[in-house]
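Retro notes
What went well: the complex prediction finally ran end to end.
Inputs used:
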Amino acid sequence: MNKRIVQFLSHTILILGVLLMVVPIWIAFASSTHENVTILKEGMQWGLGDQLVRNYNEVLNQKGGFSQEITATRMFINSFIMAFGIASIKVIISSMSAYAIVYFRFKLAVPLFWLIFITLLVPLEVRILPSYQVVSDLNLTNSYTGLILPLVASATATFFFRQFYKSVPDELLEAAKLDGANSWKFFIDFLVPLSKTMIAAMFIFMFVYGYSQYLWPLIMTTDEKYWTVVMGMKIIFQESYEGGNLPRVAERFAYIILSMIPPILVVVFLQRWFIKGLIQTEK
Amino acid sequence: MSFLELKNITKVYPNGTKAINETSLNIEYGEFMVFVGPSGCGKSTLLRMIAGLEDITEGEIDLDGKTINKIDPSERDVAMVFQNYALYPHMNVYKNLSYGLKNRGESKENIDNKVKEVAELLEIKEYLQRKPAQLSGGQRQRVAMGRAIVRNPKVFLFDEPLSNLDAKLRGQVRIEIKKLQQSMNVTSVFVTHDQVEAMTLGDRLAVINNGVIEQLGTPIEVYEKPASKFVGEFIGSPQMNFVNGAINNNNFESSSFKLNKDLNIDNASVVLGFRAEDLNLKEEGEISLTIDIIEKLGSDSIIYGRDKDGQSICYKESGNTKLEVGEIINISLDVDAVHIFDEKTGKRLN
């Protein structure tokens, strides 16, 4: 009896939690399938409308921006390149720097690690002017390199990899040494496969971090070709406000829904590795 | 010249700890050498220096006529079995066995043949596709052995490989290791703190204490003629009995009894050592013992008691004893089997 109540309560809480997450997304999706007029007259919609194909087609293919040169598709590609670049380079750099710190006991390894760690206190937003100065001096404004490079150093990921490597038993390194593995091979044949669930997790976090960057691309790009999704959310379909037309609310909802897809895909794809890591104890 | 020679090896850790102090040792081809000693005595350090996992502060190690001090571990042609096996957790058994061969650049068929051969020998053929996590302790042990054998090394190094197995399996694997080593005739160095393993496996033992080899010899030599009080105490179960006393006119005298044997030693303060099995129950025995505890093992009985001075002494009887706790018995000592050690240095005097 008692058990039943506990079960009922915990399920209720869980279901409420799910609703809390899902309902806003549903409303956004449902609203994106109506005409602008309907939304402006009746507010946001719970049910589906009949404008799905038209709205999404509009979003993906209509050119926007000040000079009408950029489409949403282009912005998705830009964002994807930026987020993918940031996430993969971050993972590579931080796993390697953690490897250096843990396994090569060079002088100053510990102070260096803490120096890296301290950079957590100085996020991009704090150092945005000097960063801009550097990137602009290097002529990297309006380029993917410029979008990606200033964001690739990661103290968080370095820290997590360091903690993981420290938990790898020394005997493994010694056995590998006797088996003729040099330091490069030990990294590739042992640490990378052992930390692959870790790599997947880091990649997801960093991808979402890169994908949701707003301020940096906004400052960095003057050329509409390099606009990203999150910037676009503010800018695209806005021009119609100033004209006499209706605000294009439905299209913006469609745009928001589409912008969620890439991070979701990354999570879904890498989740398999997550779960694998949870059921198999490989250490 | 011996196959494996350690010449005046010293190891000092960066923090100043001296783990090994000017140790020299020659190991012959095909010999099974056991390093035995309490934990922290330096036996593992010595083994790891042979493997190349630990730098040598001073001295020289020669293997097969070549100085190997500066040679990379993988090129020394030694294989090691680790205490926790150190199997590669993300690789299956086949890959665990073949990884070293692959790094040496051997051909695929060659690797395949060798791995299959070793798998056959160790009866792990069915497990080749499994990961280490899916194996039992004994199976993992075999894989660890296999990884060493497959490389066909000049020397096997064992770092307490049996300590993670349960008692029954330990006995079995011990015999298997001995058999394998004999049939393959590979020079082996085995580190252990377990004196039963040391006695049963080794052709020779090196009893190590505080970074120094206290005694080097065959198991029986070490058992019958321990070179120091430490060796006598460490080797043999139950532990050797010790009674403090002095030599007066070539005779041993303690506060509670006297030995009637000409020992031919100068007068000195000494410690008399004798093993539990060198005592006999006798009416006129020189030691009288109040029994505290009796352990009946089936084949033997071990009787723990105190003499008149409260010195605890242990006596072993074969079969099931009829003695009882609290009883006072007289025992006599086999005077030919006593060990006399210097009280200060602990060195053997007779």
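What we learned: The two ends of chain B are 32 Å apart (CA to CA).
What to try next: split runs per interface for comparison.
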